[in-house]
Write a structure and sequence with these properties.
Bound molecules: guanosine-5'-diphosphate, 6-O-phosphoryl inosine monophosphate, magnesium ion
Number of helices: 11
Number of strands: 20
Strand order of the largest sheet: 9-7-5-2-10-1-11-15-19-20
Largest sheet: 10 strands, mixed
Shape: globular
Structural class: alpha/beta
Strand content: 15-25%
């Protein structure tokens, strides 16, 4: 068997959590391969709403194995809060959630460093989630990190060494902080973690594949936030793209199966950084209001704009996307017309190629399509789709040269329509 990968094609929050939950019945194992509690993946079913940060979104469908892979950065305190909340609502995880020994730990001082780095950047700050993601990955790459497996041996010593290094850095940045309580709670998180099974996840996952078990890898963030291919430096600190599933799980590239690329019918971004199709008018406000575009983790208002096909084509290319999933179509239900950016005008030159840098000289060129002006939220099958919506889907498939397999028409698990093609 191979590993199918589901990942975001925009700037995150595309609806990954919802679709991983929907696809979970088709898989034996669900795994996260990068990111950490900067993610906020929302699932809704049976009138309940859950937001997951570090735990894979396959946890709600009985009997599935969920794995936190080596590419993830884990905050034991936030993990404890997340797991306890799930346990309180009747979802026992201890037997179904496995954690890679090679995943790196987010220390309390990493969070402080995240805040100190942002403060030092002033007006050019990234607008991070403040969860210590950048400093933790920095320590990983500079070979100073502390890993989950380190909890099992000489942990105090390893922790103290890393903390001392961070304290020197925080002093150099003139950053005032007090982590007394945070550190105490964090250490309780370390104790809590010990009840879970720590695994050599690369062996385990390759073993699943050998045993013909199906594996779904759940991306976090989105391609445009990737450390290499996103809108650098306004990105996160991990490889959010498909290749990240190889390094973040320990699987070879030839073990990748389907790549599901997920995108909103429009586009959003939270935090700083370029966003060519961003709207600053009432149309943008309308998207934000109808789409409830507020961060699942930080509560920050998300910036909204039209779909950007230049960026989407780029994301499809980088990831080798085999199937597309379009989310939040219902948010556009009341719009007279829908715009899609098909090219950029850069200093008077038209291009469909995503450039090295997005700056103020990059202007979107739009095509305008008729809106469908129909409530789609209760639709059950593609036969009910209005003509103008079908036109929008065909237009996107034609532009992106990739089939749109799933259309989402609301936040609930049930509000998901699988489209059938001749191959099915
Ligand atoms: P993720 O980070 O990619 O998992 O996405 P988030 O959970 O951060 O953000 C997606 C938001 O949109 C959540 O509040 C979901 O409940 C909601 N959502 C997902 N799909 C749909 C949809 O098709 N329509 C609407 N209106 N909301 C959706
Ligand atoms: P999910 O998985 C949207 C953004 C932050 C910031 C930048 C760097 O829910 O889609 P970081 O804390 O990672 O150093 O922040 O990345 N960001 C996200 N935006 N969805 C996310 O995750 C994000 N995770 C990080 O807003 O601009
Ligand atoms: Mg999110």
């Amino acid at each position: 068997m191979k590993v199918d990968v589901l990942l975001g094609l925009q700037w995150g929050d595309e609806g990954k959590g919802k679709i991983v939950d929907v696809l979970t019945p088709n898989y034996d194992v669900i795994t996260r391969f990068q990111g950490g509690p900067n993610a906020g993946h929302t699932l809704e079913f049976n009138g309940e709403k859950y937001v997951l940060r570090s735990i894979p979104s396959g946890i709600f469908q009985g009997g599935k194995i969920n794995v936190i892979g080596n590419g993830v950065v884990l905050d034991p305190l936030l993990f404890k809060q997340e797991a306890e909340a799930l346990q309180a609502s009747g979802h026992d995880l201890t037997k179904r959630l496995l954690i890679s020994k090679k995943a790196h730990l987010i220390l309390p001082t990493h969070r402080m460093l995240d805040a100190a780095n942002e403060a030092a950047k002033g007006s050019s700050k990234i607008g991070t989630t403040g969860k210590g993601i950048g400093p933790t990955y920095t320590d990983k790459i500079s070979r100073n990190g502390v890993r989950v497996g380190d909890i099992l041996e000489n942990f105090e010593e390893k922790y103290a060494k890393a903390k001392a290094k961070h304290e020197t850095m925080l002093k150099a940045l003139n950053y005032d902080y007090d982590i007394t309580q945070l550190e105490k709670d964090w250490m309780e998180g370390i104790e809590y973690l010990k009840q879970f099974t720590f695994i050599d996840s690369e062996h385990q996952i390759n073993g699943y594949l050998k045993d013909d078990k199906s594996v779904l890898a759940e991306g976090a963030q989105g391609t445009m936030l990737d450390i290499d291919f996103g809108s650098y430096p306004f990105v996160t600190s991990s490889n959010t793209v498909c290749a990240g599933a190889c390094t973040g799980l320990g699987i070879a590239p030839n073990k990748i199966g389907d790549v599901y690329g997920i995108f909103k019918a429009y586009c959003t971004r939270v935090g700083s950084g370029p966003f060519p199709t961003e709207l600053f008018d009432e149309t943008g406000d309308k998207m934000c209001d109808i789409g409830h575009e507020f961060g699942s983790v930080t509560g920050r208002r998300r910036r909204c704009g039209w779909i950007d096909l230049v960026a989407l084509k780029y994301a499809i290319m980088i990831n080798g996307v085999t199937q597309l999933i379009m989310m939040k179509s219902d948010v556009l239900d009341t719009f007279d017309t829908i715009k899609a950016c098909v090219a950029y005008d850069i200093d008077g030159k038209e291009t469909e190629e995503f450039p090295f840098e997005i700056n103020d000289n990059v202007k979107p060129i739009y095509v305008e399509l008729p809106g469908w002006q129909t409530d789609m939220t209760k639709m059950q099958s593609e036969n009910e789709f209005p003509e103008e919506f079908n036109q929008y889907v065909s237009f996107l498939e034609d532009q992106l040269q990739t089939p749109i397999k799933i259309v989402s028409v609301g936040p609930d698990r049930e509000q998901t329509i699988i489209r059938y093609t001749e191959e099915d």
